[in-house]
Amino acid sequence: MTDNPIELVSPVWTHLSDVVVERAEGVHVYTSNGQRYLDFTSGIGVTNTGHCHPKVVAAAQAQIGKVIHAQINVYHHQPIFDLVSALKSVAPAELDTFFFSNSGAEAVEASIKLARQTTGKPNIIVFQGSFHGRTVAAMSLTTSKTIYRLRYQPLMAGTFVAPYPYAYYYGWEPEQTSQWCLKQLRHLLVTQTDPSETAAILVEPVLGEGGYVPPPPSFLPGVRQICDEHDILFIADEVQSGFGRTGRFFAVEHFDVTPDIMVMAKGLGSGFPISGIAARRELMARWVPGSHDGTYGGNAVCCAAAAATVQAICEEGLVENAARMGTRLMDGLRGLQAQHPIIGDVRGLGLMVATEFASAEGEPDKPTAKAVQQCCLEAGLFLLTCGAYDNTIRWIPPLVVNAEQIDQSLEIFGRALES
User: What is the DSSP letter of 142?
Assistant: First the structure.
């Protein structure tokens, strides 16, 4: 037996640090001894409004004193009405009906259940490098790292994987990569899953855990065209790229495409566990009542916090700030790349930015990425890595970040590169 509380927590959770956070505000977290860190992880893309945004805190506090759990099958509550109204004002106009869950994985599973049941078709196409969650079905759709599937096989059947246009990895020009990947997607529909058996194509508008890779401009419109040609539903997984992260409210807006189903989580609740999917009313109306559900879905407190989150993002211009600060961050990182060729690529949209490390031979350089990450941590800056080879540092600060804080992070990162 042990009295050490850390040893009472399952070691299946990995840990970037042993830092114990006592409180957090905006872009900073604080330890019990008063040490302050710049948190450029946002709780893995969750605290888009910053830690403990006053409007979100106030909304949750007000609701928690009224009713915490108003189970949606039993009765309605006002916060869910407030949330659907807020989402309708920012989501693509065609996506006017919403279902809520607790996590990104649950929302992904809801999206494929909706697609399978309403189309009567079993198969789902995903893309190489995707991350869609850790539950069994969502894990079956995830291809960013083998660790997520390790000794959990066999997984859900009916999943097929197409290449994603990761131009830097392939070493091709972006448009060449896009057209090749679209050709391979069409080939998949001829060789592995016939359109008559394919319910949906599920795609991250910006590849997330797989490396923070924005697709070339022609790719998502090309996927949309293929879906339309073959009566296949287009599902956009906006779990990490949504709610202003890329400098648009949703990343699909960069590419002028509208999905049939959109998956939302992370930034929706500013840290409260809530996720959802949006779809056309006509599609949702074909989802058989009672065939999908969840005890905690649409929790009243979480809905209140999420509605306040959307309100804060809109009223405080956080989408526009993400675009401005993202440009400042990318410019600074490209300046550092010019001085340090070990940075093979700098890419991103808004404040969803990647710096990928590569050796002189062009091979993934995980040791350098991890060393730089550790140096930044010791200097007071939290950063995460991602990608199949863990050689990419991802930059996901809260959208409330200002120019001074961006510059401070670049200074810390530059010193880490020097060391």
Answer: -
CA distance 414 to 339: 10
Structure-token pair, residue 317:
């211009």
Contacts of 208 (CB under 8 A, 6+ apart): 45, 131, 144, 239, 240, 241, 386
3-state secondary structure of 296: coil
Contacts of residue 275, defined as CB under 8 A and 6 or more positions apart, other chains included, come to 100, 101, 102, 103, 104, 106, 107, 239, 263, 264, 265, 268
Q: Are 133 and 103 in contact (CB under 8 A)?
A: yes
CA 268 to CA 242: how far, in whole Å? Answer: 8
The Cα 172–Cα 319 span in angstroms is: 31
3-state secondary structure of 357: strand
Written as six digits, the tokens of 47 are: 């605290």
At 56, the amino acid letter reads: V
Here the tokens at position 20 are 């114990």
The number of C-alpha atoms within 13 Å of 35 and in the hemisphere containing its C-beta is: 13
The confidence score (pLDDT) of residue 216 equals 98
Residue that has been written with the tokens 């350089």 in this structure: 365
pLDDT at 349: 98
Give dist(CA 300, CA 303) in Å, integer: 5
Q: Is 127 left (phi over 0), alpha (psi -120 to 50) or beta?
A: beta
Domains of the chain in start order, with CATH, are 5-52+317-418 (3.90.1150.10), 54-315 (3.40.640.10)
Cα–Cα distance for residue pair 27/380, rounded to 1 Å: 12
**Nearest-angstrom CA–CA distance, 343 and 156:** 37
Cβ atoms of residues 167 and 174 within 8 Å: yes
Check residue 1 and give its pLDDT. 59
- % of the chain with per-residue pLDDT over 90: 94
**pLDDT tens track for 290-301:** 999 999 999 999
How do 28-31 and 21-25 pair as beta strands? antiparallel
Q: Which two tokens stand for residue 395?
A: 């930059």
Distances in Å between the alpha carbon of 206 and those of 6, 280, 415?
35, 23, 29
Q: How wide is the angle at C-alpha 241 spanned by C-alphas 400 and 297, nearest 5°?
A: 95
The segments of the chain whose pLDDT lies below 50 read none
> In the numeric block, which tokens belong to residue 151?
């000794």
